[in-house]
Design a protein that fits this description.
By secondary structure, this protein is an alpha/beta fold. It has five domains: about 30 residues; about 100 residues, 2-Layer Sandwich (Alpha-Beta Plaits); about 375 residues, Peptidase S8/S53 domain (Rossmann fold); about 170 residues, Glucose Oxidase, domain 1, CATH 3.50.30; about 100 residues, Immunoglobulin-like (Sandwich). Helices cover about 25% and strands about 25% of the residues. The strands form eleven sheets. A seven-stranded parallel beta sheet has the order 7-10-6-11-13-14-27, sandwiched between helices. The protein is globular and about 85 Å long. GO terms for molecular function: serine-type endopeptidase activity. Keywords: Glycoprotein, Hydrolase, Protease, Secreted, Serine protease, Signal. This is Subtilisin-like protease SBT2.4. Belongs to the peptidase S8 family.
Length: about 800
C-alpha cells in the first residue's frame, strides 16, 4: 500500500514537471523573434594593437597572420558568449562584425535579448530597425568635362585609382556602364573578392567592378525570400543599386536608349573609378544587420569611399541618434580613413526629417537641374495644356486628333464588376470598359481614391491601354484629392499626366462642351478630340538648382524628442531629381521599368552618389587628404545661389510653389566640384575630436560614451559647436559664446585672407583675426564671438567668408537660435 502511494505521488509530480516545462518552452517559442545588433567590449581588427604593428617584438610572424589570429579570437569569443548566455535553440547568429566594430547580429526573442543586455562585456544591444532605399546630364550641369575631368586628363582618367564601395541592392554586371576598360593604376590598397551566384557568373568582376559580395543572413532571418527576385548573389534584381553605382562611377559616354528613343549619353561623376559592390538589401526585405556587415567588410577590403543610399528610415528609440549601431559603424569607418556619404532621406519638406545625423558622415540633400521634360496635349479647340510625360506623340506626330473619351463614359452598362473608382474612373481593369468606345481613342483616367491610397497604379493603366488598344491616355487630377505630384516616366504608349486640378478642369470643361448626352446623362456622341505631343525631348531652361520637395530637412537632432543638435544637416546639396542611370531589366519593384536598361529616378538616393563620385575626384587629385579635409573642401566651396544669380529656392508643401531656402534644406549649398579640388583652406577633425564632441553634448553621461564607443571622456569641448566643422550651429545661444575654428592652407603658395561676416538675425558676430597670412600646410586659429542682441523663436542664418589674395573663397555657414538669457 505504501509503495502504491509512493507511485501515485511520483507520477503526478512528473506530469506537473512535464506540463510546466511544456508551457514554459511553448511560451518562449511564442515570442516573436527579431534581429538584434550587439556591440562588445574589446578592439576590432582594424584598431587592435598587434594587428597594426608591422612587426611584433614578441612573435615574429607577419601582420596578416596577426590579423587572422585576432579574427579567429573574436569569432570564438562571439560564439562562446552566445552559447553561455542564451538558451540552446533560442537564437541564430547572423553576422560577426570584426573589422571596424567588435560585435554580432543575432536573431532571437526579446527575453533572450534582455539577457544579453545584462551580460558583462556587452556594450549595446539594439533592435534592428530595417533599412530602406532612399529612392546623365549632371556632369555637364556640374561643369565637370571642362573642369576636374580636363585637369585629370579627361574622362578617360577621372577617378582612376579610387575605389567606391556601393552598399545597396547589388549591381547589374552586364550593363555597359560597368563594362571593362583598361586602367592605368593598380589597386595595391584594395583586396576585395568576387562572389558568384544566380545571374552573377564568374567574370562579372571585370576590373571595373573590382569586388562583389552579398549579405543576406538578416534578410533570410526576417522574411521568406522570393527565389525569383531575391537572388543570393551580388546581382541587382531591383535596379536601385545599379542606378546609384552608375551615378558615382559609371563609364563615360554610355548611350541612354529607352523604348527605342535616344535620350543622350550617361556618365558617372568619376567614370574611371572602380566599383566595389556590397549587396545588403533585397526586393523583399532589408535589414540593418546586413548593412552593418557590409560596411564592416567594405572597410576591411580597403575602399576609399562608401556610398550609402540605403539606411534606417527612423532614429533608434532608446539611444542618442549619434550612438546607434549604424552611426557607430560609420564613426569607425571614418576612423579607418574612409569617406562616408549618406542620403539625407526622402521625408521632406517637413523639418527635422534628416536620417543622416552624425558629423562624421556627409549627408546629401537633393535638388533639380535645369533639364526639363515638357509634355503637352493639344485640344481640338486649339487649347494647349502642359503636363508631365516621357512618351512619344500620339499617331500623326501629335498633329492628328483622336476621339477623347472619359473613362466613366466608356464603362460597360451590363458589367458585373464593382462600382468603385478603380473600375469606373481609374482605368485599372480592361474588363470594365467597352472596347468599341475606347479603341483608337485618347482616354481620360482620373486620379481618384485608388491612386490616393496606393492601390491603383500607372502600370495597370498601361496594361489596360495595351489590352484595349488605346491611342493614348491622360491621368487628370481630381478636385477631391487636390493636385498630385508627377514625375516623367518612360511610357511605351502615348500618355500624359495632368497633376494640376486647374488644368484638369480645363480639359474636362472642353470635353463636356463637345460631348452630347441624353436625358439620363449617357453619351450619345463623342465630339471632343485631342492629340498628345512629344514628351521625350528635354529643354534646358528655368531656375536651378531648386531644393526638391521630397528632400529631408534639418535641423539635426540628438534624440527621438527631436532635441536639436549643434551640427548642420544636411551637409551639402547635389542633383537628385530626374536623374538618368543604369537599371536592371528584372526591375523587381518597378514593373513599369521591366526590360529597361536605364531609368529616370528622383531621390536623395540619387544625390548621394554624385557626392561620392566627386569625393573620388578630389581624392585622386589630393591623395593624402583625410575624409575631413575632403568634406571641408566640398562644403566651403559650395554656393547658395542659383543659375539666375538669386538665393536658392526650395519646393514646399504647395505644388508648383517655391520659397526661399535655408541651410537646413541645402546644407552648405550646391556642390561645386571644380572649386573643391583647390579650396585654399580646410577645416579638419580627427577621431579624437568626434569623441570630444560626443562628450560635450548637453546632459550627456560620460559612461554612455564609454559604453558605446569604448573611449573615456578625458577631454571634451566647452561646447559641442567647437567641433572643427566647416559650419557653426548653435541651437540655443544665451548671451554670448566664443566658438573656435582652425584652418589649414592646402594650397601651394602663401596666401593672405580677409574675413567678412554676415551675422544671423538677432546676433552680432566678431571674427578674430579679421585677416591673416598663412603659408602652405600652415594653420591659423580663428575665434568667432557671437553675441545675442535680440531673442528669436527659431534659427536664423549667416556666414563667414574668408577671401584669399589668390582668389580662394572659403565660406563657413552660421546657424543660430538666439534666446533670452
Amino acid at each position: 500500500m505504501a509503495k502504491m502511494s509512493a507511485a501515485c505521488i511520483v507520477l503526478p509530480s512528473l506530469f506537473i514537471f512535464i506540463f510546466i516545462f511544456f508551457v514554459s518552452t511553448t511560451c518562449c517559442s511564442q515570442e516573436e523573434r527579431s534581429i538584434y545588433l550587439v556591440l562588445l567590449r574589446g578592439d576590432p581588427i582594424a584598431f587592435h594593437e598587434d594587428s597594426q604593428n608591422e612587426d611584433s617584438s614578441r612573435i615574429h610572424v607577419s601582420r596578416k597572420a596577426l590579423i587572422k589570429a585576432h579574427e579567429k579570437h573574436l569569432l570564438a569569443y562571439h560564439d562562446m558568449l552566445l552559447q553561455t548566455t542564451l538558451e540552446n535553440g533560442s537564437y541564430n547568429k547572423l553576422h560577426s562584425f570584426k573589422y571596424i566594430i567588435n560585435g554580432f547580429s543575432v536573431h532571437t526573442t526579446p527575453s533572450q535579448a534582455k539577457k544579453l543586455r545584462g551580460t558583462p562585456g556587452v556594450k549595446l544591444v539594439e533592435k534592428d530597425r530595417g533599412v530602406k532605399m532612399m529612392t546623365t546630364y549632371t556632369p555637364e550641369f556640374l561643369h565637370l568635362p571642362k573642369g576636374i575631368w580636363a585637369q585629370e586628363g579627361g574622362e578617360e582618367n577621372a577617378g582612376d585609382g579610387i575605389v567606391i564601395g556601393v552598399i545597396d541592392s547589388g549591381i547589374n554586371p552586364h550593363h555597359p556602364s560597368f563594362a571593362y576598360q583598361s586602367f592605368k593604376s593598380n589597386l595595391s590598397h584594395f583586396s576585395g573578392a568576387c562572389e558568384t551566384g544566380p545571374n552573377f557568373p564568374p567574370g562579372s568582376c571585370n576590373g571595373k567592378i573590382v569586388s562583389a559580395k552579398y549579405f543576406s543572413a538578416g534578410a533570410e532571418a526576417m522574411a521568406t525570400l522570393n527565389a525569383s527576385v531575391d537572388f543570393l548573389s551580388p546581382f541587382d534584381a531591383d535596379g536601385h543599386g545599379s542606378h546609384v553605382a552608375s551615378i558615382a562611377a559609371g563609364n563615360a559616354g554610355v548611350p541612354v536608349v529607352v523604348n527605342g528613343f535616344f535620350y543622350g549619353r550617361a556618365s558617372g561623376m568619376a567614370p574611371r573609378a572602380r566599383i566595389a559592390v556590397y549587396k545588403a538589401i533585397y526586393p523583399s526585405v532589408g535589414t540593418l544587420a546586413d548593412v552593418v556587415a557590409a560596411i564592416d567588410q567594405a572597410v576591411l577590403d580597403g575602399v576609399d569611399i562608401i556610398s550609402l543610399s540605403v539606411g534606417p528610415n527612423e532614429p533608434t528609440e532608446d539611444t542618442l541618434t549619434f550612438l546607434n549601431m549604424f552611426d557607430i559603424s560609420l564613426l569607425f569607418a571614418r576612423k579607418a580613413g574612409v569617406f562616408v556619404v549618406q542620403a539625407a532621406g526622402n521625408k521632406g519638406p517637413t523639418s527635422s526629417t534628416v536620417v543622416s545625423f552624425s558629423p562624421w558622415s556627409v549627408g546629401v540633400a537633393a535638388c533639380n537641374t535645369n533639364r526639363r521634360y515638357r509634355a503637352s496635349i493639344l485640344l481640338l479647340n486649339g487649347q494647349i495644356v502642359d503636363g508631365v510625360g516621357l512618351s512619344g506623340p500620339s499617331f500623326g506626330n501629335g498633329t492628328v486628333f483622336h476621339k477623347l473619351v472619359l473613362a466613366k463614359d466608356a464603362v460597360k452598362t451590363n458589367g458585373t464588376f464593382p462600382n468603385t473608382p478603380e473600375y469606373i474612373e481609374e482605368c485599372q481593369h480592361p474588363e470594365a470598359l467597352d472596347p468599341t468606345k475606347v479603341f483608337g481613342s485618347v482616354i481620360i483616367c482620373n486620379f481618384s481614391e485608388g491612386f490616393s491610397n496606393g492601390t491603383s497604379t500607372l502600370d495597370a493603366i498601361i496594361a489596360t491601354a495595351k489590352a484595349l488598344r488605346f491611342e493614348g491616355f491622360i491621368l487628370t487630377a481630381n478636385p477631391n484629392y487636390g493636385d498630385y505630384i508627377a514625375e516623367p516616366i518612360p511610357f511605351a504608349i502615348s500618355s500624359i499626366l495632368i497633376p494640376s486640378v486647374a488644368d484638369s478642369k480645363a480639359i474636362l470643361k472642353y470635353y463636356e462642351e463637345w460631348t452630347k448626352r441624353d436625358e439620363n446623362g449617357t453619351v450619345k456622341e463623342f465630339g471632343a478630340a485631342a492629340a498628345i505631343g512629344e514628351g521625350r525631348v528635354a529643354s534646358f531652361k528655368g531656375r536651378s538648382p531648386v531644393v526638391s520637395r521630397f528632400s529631408s530637412r534639418g535641423p539635426d537632432f540628438i534624440d527621438t524628442k527631436r532635441s536639436p543638435a549643434d551640427v548642420l544637416k544636411p551637409d551639402i546639396l547635389a542633383p537628385g531629381h530626374q536623374i538618368w542611370g543604369a537599371w536592371s531589366p528584372n526591375s523587381a519593384l518597378q514593373p513599369m521599368l521591366t526590360g529597361h536598361s536605364f531609368a529616370l529616378l528622383s531621390g536623395t538616393s540619387m544625390a548621394a552618389p554624385h557626392v561620392a563620385g566627386i569625393a573620388a575626384l578630389i581624392k585622386q587629385h589630393n591623395p593624402s587628404w583625410t575624409p575631413s579635409m575632403i568634406a571641408s573642401a566640398i562644403s566651403t566651396t559650395s554656393t547658395k545661389y542659383d543659375n539666375l544669380g538669386d538665393p536658392m529656392m526650395a519646393e514646399g508643401f504647395e505644388v508648383n510653389t517655391l520659397h526661399p531656402s535655408t541651410p537646413f534644406e541645402y546644407g552648405a549649398g550646391i556642390v561645386n566640384p571644380n572649386r573643391a579640388i583647390r579650396p585654399g583652406l580646410v577645416l579638419s577633425s580627427d577621431y579624437e575630436d568626434f569623441i570630444s564632441f560626443l562628450c560635450s553634448l548637453p546632459n550627456i553621461d560620460a559612461s554612455t560614451i564609454t559604453t558605446a564607443i569604448g573611449e573615456n571622456c578625458s577631454s571634451s569641448f566647452d561646447y559641442p559647436s567647437n567641433l572643427n566643422l566647416p559650419s557653426v550651429t548653435i541651437s540655443a545661444l544665451k548671451g554670448s559664446i566664443c566658438v573656435k575654428r582652425s584652418v589649414m592652407n592646402v594650397g601651394n603658395n602663401t596666401e593672405t585672407y580677409l574675413g567678412s561676416v554676415l551675422s544671423p538675425n538677432g546676433t552680432t558676430v566678431n571674427l578674430n583675426p579679421t585677416w591673416f597670412t598663412i603659408s602652405p600646410l600652415g594653420t591659423q586659429d580663428l575665434e568667432i564671438q557671437i553675441n545675442v542682441t535680440q531673442p528669436m523663436e527659431d534659427f536664423s542664418f549667416g556666414e563667414i567668408v574668408l577671401t584669399g589674395s589668390l582668389d580662394h573663397i572659403v565660406r563657413i555657414t552660421l546657424s543660430v537660435v538666439p534666446v533670452s538669457a
